[in-house]
Amino acid sequence: MAQNIHKHAQETGILDGSISCAPVADAIGSSSLLSPPSESSPNRSSSLGSGSMDAESPTEYFDAMMNNELVSHSVDEQHKLNKFLFTVDQRLVAGKTNTEDLIAQLNQEIAIKESLSLKNGKNPVKSESACPDGDNESLLQELDNKTKQLMDLQKRQDELETKSKSDIRVLDKEVRFLRSIQEKLKDDLNQYLEEKSELERILQKEKQRRREIVLARKKLISACKDLLHRLQESSVNFLEEGEDKFNVNPSSLSDALGLLTTSDTRISLLLAKAQLLAKDGYGVSGVDEINSITDDDEMASDDEIRKLLSDIIADNTTLRKQINSVVRCALKTTVNPLKDGSVEAPPRKSFLSIFWRK
């Protein structure tokens, strides 16, 4: 390879001083010996010869792609991508620096060799005695080593660029996958929000219905309490406490009959109200009244219902006992005259007979 480079130098005029240092560097940068053709980087040889990189680097391409693709990407994923991009940039900068250093050293070696060639052209005899073939061979060997280093760096740079492009493609696929997942998650979230809103509406309606039920129950309990209280006030008791006999004097019989008539009238009115209450029920009057209902009111209404039912059962028990006492008293009034004689005595006019006619 050193002989090929030496021959190429003689053909291009490096050794005889026909060209300058800068064109030599350009010739080396564009030569096929230093930079073999590649499909992935057709313009790399000219850029290395001049000591500069391409105008558009993988970093700029990656930034342009990420500006379009990662609009809605999360902060954590963007941090990871930026970290990876920073690492790739460091690798590219290091490769570029090493390449530029080698190119500078190579240009320096070529300049030295050119100056030696000029001196040999002016003083051929002296040059032949001062610069033997061993020095030329060492220079060519050193030039060959620098060329190998340059090619290794170019190969390494190609590998880094290939790896960076591969990583970019992988990241591109990952970004597209994450965007598709994000769209699906957005759809699921919207569906869940709609279901949540629907459940909240149903729950609100159920709460409204329960408040209406509690309010109607409270009104019903209040009306039942009022009817029970008025019924107890309308009741008349002419029985002795603990005895099966009446405590009405014959002289006050007309007053007792008037009390019974008044009680019957009140009881009839209360019965009509009770039937109307069972038929119509109680509706809800206003929104403010409904919103004022709380859970404590619901528990209190349950307690009031239990107490009201207990009072009704107790009152019915008392009425049953009074009916039993009246029946016993009537039986005694009917049986006692039969015991006095063998002939059945005609029934007597008494308060009880008047009561039964009523």
From TrEMBL:
Coiled coil: 136-209
Sequence ranges of Low complexity compositional bias: 30-52
Key words of the record: Coiled coil
One Gene Ontology biological process: protein transport
Chain positions covered by the region annotation Disordered: 30-57
The keyword Coiled coil is annotated on this UniProt entry: yes
Name of the featured protein: Uncharacterized protein
